[in-house]
Q: What sequence folds into this?
């Protein structure tokens, strides 16, 4: 862990933290080890912290991730492939549903608009509802497809 | 953990597989899945802490990678590209479902004792104490902020070097070390009587 590699700021405390991490993880050079020992010997708080961190490293080193039964790996690719297929099915199904619903809605609206018994205020309300729904749909689709994909802060935790 | 993550990956072979997968060759993509499925599963398990969800999320990451295969760059390591998809899925999953909160109620089935610790646990009195420590460490890890937990998992369970973690996550090495420090400090606070 050389200073260039770590990009460690000149701040001594930060340097000590990085040296302690490097020592715990076996990524420390002999020179850095000596530097750390020098820092530890002159700072009781730091030595205490070093001991705590060392014990934590020991505790985390005692555990590992549980392995699943070996059979799951035999079915893994099949499950991935099913997900790919279902993804395509969902897309096709959604496009079909949107087209059919839009066509049905258009026909319904046109039938209502042509009906002389329906009062104008209802026709106006219906027109507003349709335009509102279309604007909302286009706005959400644009947000999902373009804006979010190009958002440089999408990875930032909220 | 090395046995779990062993892939026998040959870089030239991988470039060829990625090029073929990019053209839509399913068998080539299946070979990539076979090569990295364990690693992806354990990375997801370390992040979400639930075996079923980790399996589902890792498979979903491969499925999304297949759909987006045209954006694959044969010159870049496949796993690094897959990992960006996987970690985003895992972070979204954690944020959306608050699954970690649910899991705090029970034990930590995603954690097991390492071989060294298992040997020490052969005596009954030590075994009970070790199981208690394991459970408490597992719970404390689940409570870490996502980014710190990710660093700890990649370091402790995947055994990656700082440089490898930095490349995989796309942050400077200094950030890797700072996040690791924060994670361990939080663990030390949560497990004060142990540390």
A:
């Amino acid at each position: 862990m050389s200073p260039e590699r770590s990009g460690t700021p000149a701040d001594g405390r930060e340097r000590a933290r990085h040296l302690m991490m490097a020592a715990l993880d076996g990524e420390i050079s002999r020179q850095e080890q000596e530097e750390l020992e020098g820092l530890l010997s002159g700072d009781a708080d730091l030595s205490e912290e070093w001991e705590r961190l060392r014990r934590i490293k020991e505790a985390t080193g005692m555990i590992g991730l549980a392995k699943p039964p070996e059979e799951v790996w035999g079915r893994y690719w099949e499950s991935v492939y099913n997900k790919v297929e279902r993804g395509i099915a969902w897309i096709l199904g959604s496009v079909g549903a949107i087209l059919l619903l839009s066509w049905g809605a258009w026909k319904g609206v046109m039938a209502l608009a042509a009906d002389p018994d329906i009062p104008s205020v209802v026709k106006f309300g219906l027109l507003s509802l349709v335009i509102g729904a279309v604007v909302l749909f286009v706005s959400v689709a644009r947000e999902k497809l373009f804006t979010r994909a190009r958002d440089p802060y999408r990875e930032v935790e909220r | 953990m090395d046995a779990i993550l062993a892939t026998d990956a040959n870089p030239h072979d991988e470039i060829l597989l990625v090029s073929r997968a990019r053209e839509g060759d399913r068998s080539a993509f299946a070979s990539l899945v076979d090569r990295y499925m364990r690693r992806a599963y354990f990375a997801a398990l370390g992040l979400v802490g639930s075996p079923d969800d980790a399996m589902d999320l890792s498979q979903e990451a491969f499925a999304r990678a297949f759909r987006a295969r045209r954006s694959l760059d044969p010159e870049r390591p496949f796993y690094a590209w897959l990992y960006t998809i996987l970690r985003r899925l895992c972070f979204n999953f954690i944020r959306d479902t608050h699954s970690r909160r649910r899991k705090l109620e029970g034990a930590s089935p995603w954690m097991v004792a390492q071989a060294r610790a298992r040997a020490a646990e052969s005596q009954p009195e030590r075994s009970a104490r070790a199981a208690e420590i394991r459970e408490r460490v597992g719970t404390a890890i689940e409570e870490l902020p996502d980014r710190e937990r990710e660093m700890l998992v990649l370091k402790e369970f995947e055994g990656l070097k700082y440089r490898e973690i930095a490349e995989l996550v796309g942050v400077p090495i200094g950030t890797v070390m700072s996040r690791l420090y924060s994670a361990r400090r939080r663990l030390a606070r949560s497990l004060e009587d142990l540390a």
Observations:
- The radius of gyration of chain B is 18 Å.
- The longest strand of chain B covers residues 111-113.
